Amino acid sequence: MKKIEPISDPISIKQSLSTFKQGDIDLERWKLLTMGQYSHNSLLSFQNDWQTFLAYCKEVNVSPLPAAVTAVRRFIEHSAKTRKASSIKRYVITISLLHRVHSLPDPTRHREVRFTLNRLYSEKADDAAQANAFHLSHLNALQRQLGNSDRLKDIRDLLIWTLCFEGMLKRSELAALSFHSAIKEQEVYLLVVDDQRIELSPEASELIDRWLLVSGIIDGPLLRRINKHQQLGDAPMDHSSIYRVFRRAATELGMDGTLTFSGQSPRVGASVDLSESGKSIKEIQQQGRWKSPAMPAQYVGNKQAKDEAMDKFKRKIDKD
Questions:
Q1: Where are the domains of the chain?
Q2: Which of 80, 104, 131, 200 could tie 204 with a disulfide, CB 3.0–4.6 Å?
Q3: Are 310 and 291 in contact (CB under 8 A)?
Q4: 183-213 pLDDT tens trace
């Protein structure tokens, strides 16, 4: 938050408090209060968010300025029923700003309010839209559809989908793969990711051989951009190009508009498939290289395991 000097004159504080308690503050007044440090859109947000808080305080008959800690906490809980976490975060920023500028104790800094916010953000994160799972069935369908293609882009994209699923790769891990990350031992390849060796299937190994043959890559990034003329570039894939590859997967499967695949989708789908095959959360965590079992547990819908992992993680942070 930007540094705004509090009003120092007692008479000015009293007049300003009276004005802001009434509401309907024009943008010029907000600009003056914030010393011209915020954009027009930010001032509009302050104005709208403060009106929302004022309306709540009027409804429950409590003071908005200064606001009690309990009033702010209940306002947050009330707003959480219908508002996104980002909106509530803005409300809290606005309430905090007005208290600090008027030299009043900031109720949003109280541990009771912070605890409520942390709990809310955790709950809202659970409710956030998760990437659609990219399952083995999706990969198999794409292999049947594009497996015989000689097009450079088809071979590359099929390799990307396969490596991401079998290796449970993050986008950053995929982009960081080099020619030397794929080590051939006998008939199959081992993929080296963060010092971990992932044994690939014969199908994935065959795709790597085909890709290296048609691309001519002998050094540098393993996966690279391809322009509209089917010319291979020197630069590695970035996050936006990886996103487009997975968006293409949904299109090729005839699910465009129904499913939204992203670079995270194979990790979600592989976690679910492994769980359904009998793998434990711990085994999935190790295979996906997660530091905590919380995320794979969330992916497979094991909320209890996720909550236990999060509690353990928080206790570790507290000790540190």
A1: 10-127, 140-262
A2: 200
A3: no
A4: 999 889 999 998 889 999 999 999 999 999 9
